[in-house]
Amino acid sequence: MSLSTAFFLPGVSILAESTSPAILMSIAKPIVTFAAFVPYAVLVSTKLEKDAAYFNLKPQKWAAIFLAFGTAGVLSALLIPTWFAGFPLMIAFFAAPCTWYMKFRNEALKGTKTKPLTFLDIDFGKMAADRKAKSAQAGATLRFQKKDRSEQAAPDRKDLAFEVYAGLETILLAALDTRASRVEIALSKQGAQIQQVIDSMRFKREPLAGDIATRIVDLLKGFADLDPAERRKFQRGTVPIVRDGTRIVLTVTSIGSMQGESIRVDIEREKQLSISLAKSGMSEPQVKLIADTLNADPRGTVLVGARPGQGLTTLTYALLGRHDSLTSNIKTLERKFERIVEGVEHTDFDAAAKNDFGTQLQSIVRRGPDVVFAADVADAGSAKVICAAGARSTLFYVGMPSDSVPDIMAAWLKAVGDPKSAADALRLVVTQRLVRKLCLTCRAPYAPNPAEQKMLGITAGKPVQIYKQSGKVLIKDQPVDCPTCKGVGFLGCCAVVEVLPLDTDSRALLATGDVKGAYMLARRTFKCPSLQDAALIKVRNGETSFDEVKRIFAPPPAAAGTAVAGAPKPASAPATTVPAKTNGTTPGPKKQ
Fold first, then answer.
1. How far is residue 155's CA from residue 173's CA, in Å, rounded to a whole number?
2. Which has the closest alpha carbon to 254: 271, 237, 240?
3. Reduced to 3 states, what is the DSSP secondary structure of residue 559?
4. The pLDDT value given to residue 152
5. CA dihedral defined by 40, 46, 48, 51, rounded to 10 degrees?
């Protein structure tokens, strides 16, 4: 022992000199000492200190007491020459504050319903298992939670099951990093095909080969409280995940088919479906036009249309959300409802029942609702039920896949079968498509050419600036991928909407079967911009680009997607026709 150590620790040098080399060189005794300290530390940190904090029993004071007695116990084992005397003293130091706290705690809570705490109530085996699970979870990036927000156990890195867990993490992390709203996994005997949806566009991911794809899907279904063995019936559940302290809710849907099982994972589905009309991309005049039309006569039919995957469900729920559920009786009949709107009575269509969609809809109408959302009118008779009830007192929202307002109007006439009844019931048509918004960090300004100026309704020769996607910024005079949009050029999406009310004259023309004539008359009467006009307004305002408008009005693509690696690139990844480039000039990437 050095002179300085002996000086500052009087008496210690004498103890050290009298300690036999056999004790100092023993390996087993330090291990036993450490093994005794660990349960004390775990008990104090995970049980007693939390208990004191929960019941507000001076937790800071008890933390200091536990630390002081723990330190004294360790020092007694290390400094007393005879280990067989020091070790029992250490155990006594550990037991004293725990016994003291339990006695103090039980006296303080005496007379309450709280059960007294004793050493018999402490499950050291469970504490060890929880510690092991926590250690294993430390090797995982994502934390899967149960319904009570406790964490699902992650397999240890040495466990063979960790490969499956890591594979699931890889799929989900790639989706989160690229801002995907949905991941789709299609299982087959060869493995799985994976696609993800980013800002309403589909992108292919690298496929999974072999049996691991099925094991990954089964693990995910288990986390979402679905039956992993059930591969044919429709199942839906949710599982929260935590990444870097942020909680994200995944909605997991399992769909069986003749080709195999498909899994759909929607990321924060509730938030996606909870967008109001004002925040959807609809203009203020359009929101006001809907309100004025329906307030003037709250009966009849509103047709709501969009292409598949273009926000039809979100738009319909936004329209339902404008009604006060406290003063209006609102009901729905849906194939599978996507979210519960507060105050709305949702009903799933029972395909196994003897009654068809129209009969179940009629049953809902008999209860006298003020507002009804009908998912579709594909079944014969549904449209006639809507026409009859709408003429009396009910307002119906009817969702219909469509390309345009004339398209959905023609489909409505066909579904009803009687042009006059269909026209008399119709009050309003709302259709939309989703357009990607330019990234404000890297969008590139340019002057439109004469043809583009004409399309935008800008006087020829008038100086004007619009924007196109870039995906690049300048950092130290070097073009690099934009850190905001990850090089895509777009960030988020919004709706391009056409709202068309029908007055008496336009309905009279529609009753003759003249869809185009009724459409043009209503547009002139109410001065409503078409779907294309609404999209061009967003180009003029700098929200999106000409290329994006050309994409959303191009014919639907034949292919499902194009393979990508990592973050998607707009030139190669989108599952759409690549639009022609504009003739404008761009000043290059923005400087950061």
1. 18
2. 237
3. coil
4. 82
5. 180
**Which residues pair with residue 304 across a beta bridge?**
399, 430
Look at the chain and count its residues. 592
Give pLDDT, residue 38: 83
Backbone angles phi, psi at 192, to 5 degrees: -150, 140
Task: Report pLDDT for 26.
Answer: 65
pLDDT tens digit sequence for 306-340: 998 888 989 999 998 888 888 889 999 888 777 77
pTM across the whole model: 0.69
| pLDDT tens profile 454-468 | 888 877 777 888 999
Q: Secondary structure of the chain: what % helix, strand, coil (to 5)?
A: 40, 20, 40
Q: pLDDT band at 271, cuts 50/70/90?
A: confident
Residue pLDDT, tens place only, 64-114: 999 999 899 888 888 888 878 888 888 898 889 889 988 898 888 887 877
DSSP code per residue over 531-548: HHHHHHHHHHTTSS-HHH
- Is residue 333 a contact partner of residue 372, using CB atoms and an 8 Å limit? yes
Distance (Å) of CA 191 to CA 209, 213, 218, 228, 380: 4, 6, 13, 16, 40
Strand 344-345 versus strand 395-401 pairing type? unpaired
> 173, 259, 261, 146: which is closest to 213 by C-alpha?
261
Q: Report the distance separating Cα 85 and Cα 78, nearest Å.
A: 11
- Residues sharing a CB contact under 8 Å with residue 591, sequence separation 6 or more, in sequence order: 473, 474, 475, 477
Two structure tokens written together for 301: 């039919």
List 65's β-bridge partners, or say none: none
The DSSP letter of residue 302 is E
Give me Rg for the CA atoms of the chain. 34
Largest alpha-carbon pair distance within the chain?
Answer: 113
Query: Residue 119: in which H helix or E strand, if any?
Result: none
Would you say 304 and 315 are in contact if contact means Cβ atoms under 8 Å apart?
A: yes
Tokens of 75: 């020092």
Q: Terminal CA-to-CA distance of the chain, rounded, Å?
A: 60
CA–CA gap between residue 178 and residue 201 (Å, rounded)? 12
Q: Concatenated DSSP letters for 199-252?
A: TTEEEE-PPEESTHHHHHHHHHHHHTT--TT--SS-EEEEEEEEETTEEEEEEE
Cβ contacts of residue 6 below 8 Å, gap of 6+? 12, 13
Cα 496 to Cα 576: distance, rounded to the nearest angstrom = 18
What secondary structure letter does DSSP report for 458?
P
Q: What pLDDT, in 10s, does the model give residues 573-585?
A: 334 333 333 333 3
CA 302 – CA 427 distance, rounded (Å): 6
User: Which tokens is 91 given?
Assistant: 């155990």
Dihedral sign for Cα 414, 418, 422, 423, please: positive
Candidates 449, 438, 474; CA nearest to 591 is 474
Q: What is the pLDDT of residue 289?
A: 94
Backbone angles phi, psi at 187, to 5 degrees: -85, 145
Q: What are 374's two structure tokens?
A: 């009908």
The number of helix segments (H) and strand segments (E) in the chain equals 22, 20
